[in-house]
Every structure is written in structure tokens, then in C-alpha cells.
């Protein structure tokens, strides 16, 4: 490996930008053994389960890893595809779409790697891939629109844990959140309108976000606030009345109190109150995954229908929709703008005709943001 050789860092050549696109991660197979490996890594993360280590180790290894893998494997099997876990399949498509857009818009060389916080492809493998491509500048883009210590913060830990062992640490920029990014809000609004145009419209729209323990909110985690703002902006973009939409939190884990209102509780209660027609969208999930496809599109539908609900539609996540990829590309480009050689327009120096054409494409992407 010639990472530090001159060939990668000739004078006058623009530094290569490496973009590490990350998401949560997923098991390698819908089997109890794969689930056990995945859940052990996930649930041992002190950012995810903030609980004293010794008692938690006993509960995790003594109880949870003996019960949950089998149950979760069964749930994953319901949504698994020929290409693998939905989360991984969508994430790969997102990485490919982003690579294409950034290559077109950046004047300097750019590489993208996909990495998962838990499981594979690992954060370490992704960082290595970028290093071997010669990336001197690293932009980490976790696909969590709303910041939480349990997700975004934990991704930072994993990146830092790898970089602390590197001799030459790259220049680093870490996207903290994009919960109120206009292009992301617009992409979601377009997704929802397109669904309505094709499948008809329910009478009420539920925005379902993954929950976290309420304790994390009280300790200062901005996640709850970010979710509220995303939902409000999305409701505004869709021109919904205040009583036309509701925010809720799904995917509870463990016995303590989580962010409320709980989505399953809302859906069980609504038919009895006369609300029998709902559409559900999950603005916090950049890609469809177990939590949207199995929990929302299957389990919660059953709850709602069993309680007397009549119309229940799950509106798919943004996945690799063009507007989504354009929004992410524009976001990445704006962050990369702090590195002048990546986008020469920002330092005002003379650019060639080819660079100018690329700059115009970058600005067009940015203008959509
Ligand atoms: C979108 C943001 C997410 C937050 C915030 C989050 C917090 C969080 N999650 C758990 C426990 C589990 N989550 C699981 C699956 C899962 N979680 C997210 C996203 C967020 N989690 C996604 C995208 C997925 C799906 C992954 C996939 O493979 O499709 C699971 C595993 C599934 C299961 O066994 O039920 C657990 C467990 C906690 C405890 C937590 C905050 C403290
Ligand atoms: Fe989760
Ligand atoms: Fe779940």
C-alpha cells in the first residue's frame, strides 16, 4: 500500500475528496445466528443503551441474546429480498447515485464508500477503501436526517475509533444532521404527493419516527426537537391543516418510557375515535428497512385494521428517488465547499472551461436545495 507515496499527492493536483455514506447496518442473513452477531454489536454500544455496563452485560447476554435473535430473524425473513436486506440494497443504490452526481459536479476527484455502523460493510472497511483511493479529505455523511447521540453520535465514535489508529488522519468533516434541509423536505413532499396521485389519499397523515428513551431527551439529545421540526416543515410543504397530521414514535425497545405518543397506541385508538383512514410516512428513515416494512407496513397495519381501521397506506421511504439523491448531493457539495479545491468556485480563482461547466452543474444542484 502506497498511501503516503508522492504519486497520490503530487503538487498542484486537487486533493481527492472521500465521502463516507453511512447508515445503521443490518444482519448478514435473516437467521438467528446472524441476528445474534448483529444485535450483540448494536446493543452493546453504550450510545444506544445508556445503562451501567455490568448489569447490562448480564441482561444482554443472559436474556436478550437468547430470545430476540429468533424473533427478529423471523421478522427480517418477511422483508428479506433476493439481493439481501432492504436497508443494504437501498443504501447501495444511494451510494451509486451519489457517486454519479458528485463525480459530475466536483471539479476535483471524488470517491464514495458505503459503510454501516453495525455489521458489514464496516466503517473500517469504508474508511480503508477511501484511503486506498487516495482520499485526503473525508466527508462523513450519516443518513440520519435527525441527530441523535444513539445514531449520529455513535457513528462519530466508530469513525474516530478507526482514525485514532491511523498515522495520517485525513481532514475531516462530519455532517451532524439535515432534518430541516429544504431539498430533503421537498423530496419527501414530492414522494408523498406522488403516492397520493397514484394510490389515492387517506384522510389523515401520520409521521412516524423511530423512538429513543425519553431519558435521552431529558439529558439534552436534540433528536425529539429535530423530529418535531421535520414534521412541521413537511406538513407546511404539503399544506396540511393542523388536524390533518400527527407525529408519533415507533420501535420501542425495553421497558422504560420512550418518546411519546407511541405509534402503535395511536393506531389502536384512532378507529374507536372515528379516524379510520390513515396514510403513514416515516421521515426519519432515509431507506426502507425492517422498521418501516415489517413494523409499520405489516404489524401496525394489522393493529389498525383489527381496531376497526378501514384505509391504511404505508408511503415508502425516499430510498433512491432522484429528488432524494439530488438533495443528498447538494448537501454533500455544500459541506465540501469548505475545501476550495473540491469546488473551485468558492475561492474565486480562474477556472478552465471544463471546470466552469462542472461548477455550473454543482450550482444547479445547490440551487435545488
Ligand atoms: C432512524 C433512526 C434510529 C434511531 C434514533 C434508533 C434508535 C434506537 N434503536 C434501538 C434498537 C433497535 N433498532 C433496530 C433496528 C433499526 N433501527 C433503525 C434506526 C434507528 N434506531 C433502523 C434503520 C433499523 C432497521 C435496521 C434494518 O436492518 O433494517 C433494532 C433491530 C431490529 C430488531 O431486533 O427489532 C433494534 C434492537 C435502540 C435501543 C435505539 C435508541 C436508543
Ligand atoms: Fe433502532
Ligand atoms: Fe421494530
UniProtKB/TrEMBL annotation:
Keywords: Cytoplasm, Heme biosynthesis, Iron, Lyase, Metal-binding, Porphyrin biosynthesis
Annotated localization: Cytoplasm
Classification via InterPro entries: Ferrochelatase, Ferrochelatase_AS, Ferrochelatase_C, Ferrochelatase_N
SUPFAM superfamilies named in the record: Chelatase (SSF53800)
Residues annotated for Fe(2+) binding in this entry: 210, 291
The protein's annotated pathway: Porphyrin-containing compound metabolism; protoheme biosynthesis; protoheme from protoporphyrin-IX: step 1/1
Major localisation: cytoplasm
Pfam families: Ferrochelatase
Keyword Phosphoprotein included in the entry's annotation: no
Family matches, as CDD domains: Ferrochelatase_C, Ferrochelatase_N
PANTHER family linked: FERROCHELATASE (PTHR11108), FERROCHELATASE, MITOCHONDRIAL (PTHR11108:SF1)
Described purpose of this protein according to its UniProt entry: Catalyzes the ferrous insertion into protoporphyrin IX.
UniProt name for this protein: Ferrochelatase
Organism expressing this protein natively: Acidihalobacter prosperus
Amino acid at each position: 500500500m502506497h498511501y503516503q507515496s508522492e504519486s497520490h499527492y503530487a503538487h498542484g493536483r486537487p486533493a481527492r475528496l472521500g465521502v463516507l455514506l453511512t447508515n445503521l447496518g443490518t444482519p448478514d442473513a435473516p437467521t438467528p445466528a446472524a441476528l445474534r452477531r448483529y444485535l450483540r454489536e448494536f446493543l452493546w454500544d453504550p450510545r444506544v443503551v445508556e445503562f451501567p455496563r455490568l448489569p447490562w452485560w448480564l441482561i444482554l447476554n443472559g436474556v436478550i441474546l437468547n430470545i430476540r435473535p429468533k424473533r427478529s430473524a423471523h421478522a427480517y425473513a418477511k422483508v428479506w429480498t433476493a439481493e439481501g436486506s432492504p436497508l443494504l440494497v437501498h443504501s447501495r443504490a444511494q451510494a451509486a447515485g451519489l457517486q454519479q452526481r458528485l463525480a459530475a459536479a466536483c471539479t476535483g476527484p471524488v470517491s464514495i464508500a458505503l459503510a454501516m455502523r453495525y455489521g458489514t460493510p464496516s466503517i473500517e472497511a469504508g474508511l480503508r477503501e477511501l484511503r486506498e483511493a487516495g482520499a485526503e479529505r473525508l466527508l462523513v455523511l450519516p443518513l440520519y436526517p435527525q441527530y441523535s447521540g444513539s445514531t449520529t453520535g455513535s457513528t462519530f465514535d466508530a469513525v474516530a475509533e478507526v482514525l485514532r489508529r491511523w498515522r495520517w488522519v485525513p481532514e475531516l468533516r462530519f455532517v451532524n444532521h439535515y432534518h430541516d434541509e429544504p431539498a430533503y423536505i421537498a423530496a419527501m413532499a414530492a414522494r408523498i404527493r406522488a403516492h397520493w396521485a397514484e394510490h389515492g389519499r387517506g384522510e389523515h397523515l401520520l409521521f412516524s419516527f423511530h423512538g429513543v428513551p425519553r431519558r435521552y431527551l431529558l439529558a439534552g439529545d436534540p433528536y425529539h426537537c429535530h423530529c418535531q421540526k421535520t414534521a412541521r416543515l413537511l406538513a407546511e410543504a404539503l399544506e396540511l391543516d393542523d388536524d390533518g397530521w400527527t407525529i408519533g414514535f415507533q420501535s420501542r425497545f425495553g421497558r422504560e418510557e420512550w418518546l411519546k405518543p407511541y405509534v402503535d397506541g395511536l393506531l389502536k385508538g384512532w378507529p374507536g375515535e372515528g379516524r379510520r383512514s390513515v396514510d403513514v410516512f416515516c421521515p426519519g428513515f432515509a431507506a426502507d428497512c425492517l422498521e418501516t416494512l415489517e413494523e409499520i407496513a405489516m404489524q401496525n397495519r394489522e393493529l389498525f385494521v383489527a381496531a376497526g381501521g378501514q384505509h391504511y397506506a404505508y408511503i415508502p421511504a425516499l430510498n433512491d428517488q432522484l429528488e432524494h439523491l439530488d438533495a443528498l448531493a447538494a448537501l454533500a457539495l455544500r459541506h465540501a465547499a469548505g475545501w476550495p479545491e473540491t469546488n473551485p468556485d468558492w475561492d474565486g480563482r480562474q477556472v478552465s472551461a471544463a471546470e466552469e461547466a462542472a461548477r455550473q452543474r454543482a450550482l444547479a444542484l445547490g440551487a435545488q436545495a
